[in-house]
Amino acid sequence: MSLPDTPAPPRFLLTNHERAIFIGTEGGVCLLHPQRFNALDPLKSPFPGVITNAVLAGNNLVSTWVEREISLARLAVLDLSQPIQNGVELPDLRMAMERGQIDHHHVAGSVWSHVLDAEPLALCVHDNDIIFCTHHRGIYRITLDSDEVWRQKPISWNSLEDLPDGDVIVSMKSMGDSIWVFSLGGGWAELDSSNGLEIHRGVLDFKSSVNQIWRGGESWLFGLSHSRVAWWQPESGDILIENVQGPIQDAMWDGRCWLITGWREDLKWGPASASSESPNIISTPRKEIGHRLIDRGDEGYWVLDNRGQWSPFSANSD
Length: 318
Fold this sequence. Notes:
This protein is mainly beta. 3% of the residues lie in helices and 49% in strands. It has a single domain (46-312), classed as YVTN repeat-like/Quinoprotein amine dehydrogenase (Methylamine Dehydrogenase, Chain H), CATH 2.130.10. It has 1 helix and 26 strands. A 4-stranded antiparallel β-sheet has the order 4-5-6-7, with no helix packed on it. The protein has a 4-stranded antiparallel β-sheet with strand order 8-9-10-11, with no helix packed on it.
């Protein structure tokens, strides 16, 4: 069964057992039907600027908004059982800044909305709490009610000191009792989720910047700069790196191999075969840039592209 176009070009498509929420490139937000993916409401813009991070925590959307033109940021929680609202517009924010009242404006319809004094870099949910980090300020764990659980200083790696922005955090992931933190230069750290203290750390020598990270099985997949992708298995320390056509946008572990979509191609990347030392990577062209990959069960895997149109995942092993 085909799927309808999204209301605008996509930035995020978040799903869980209860909800599907769409976020467009211009900051518009709306609910989608969780199976049919048709829009349930018109797009609304709760706050100006770009939504830079977004995760679902049960029935709540946790997001960060950044408006670089006037250098402001917000972290807010929206209760998705309530209607999404339009908020203040950018000209009104400019006027409020001139009057020294910029902190009076918050994300419309939010359960709470906080002013951030530094750019938010990464965000994840752990046991229904929010873990986030800001540039050169630190890493924080707060509850959905906005009560602080812990905070830790920024993480740095000695071997990345000479690499510009090498220790800037690009992603955080909740795994078991740990929070995994990854930096632009390949730094990684495993933190105890109960207090934020460091358990392990290291640096992966990709010789490329890290753009995105996905977890699957016992391994990690990295989207890298210079049209490269890396597969890291922490237990063995093995790292496999392959060249691709361009930046990858989404990936999913299907229990046997990585399914990847990105720059005008779909990829299937499995372990090396018995007859070859090279990993088994299959590329199939697609007309547009794959943006989001979902598992539709009996319908198979489908890809949402950068135009907001759906098509079946095209890579196969035949």
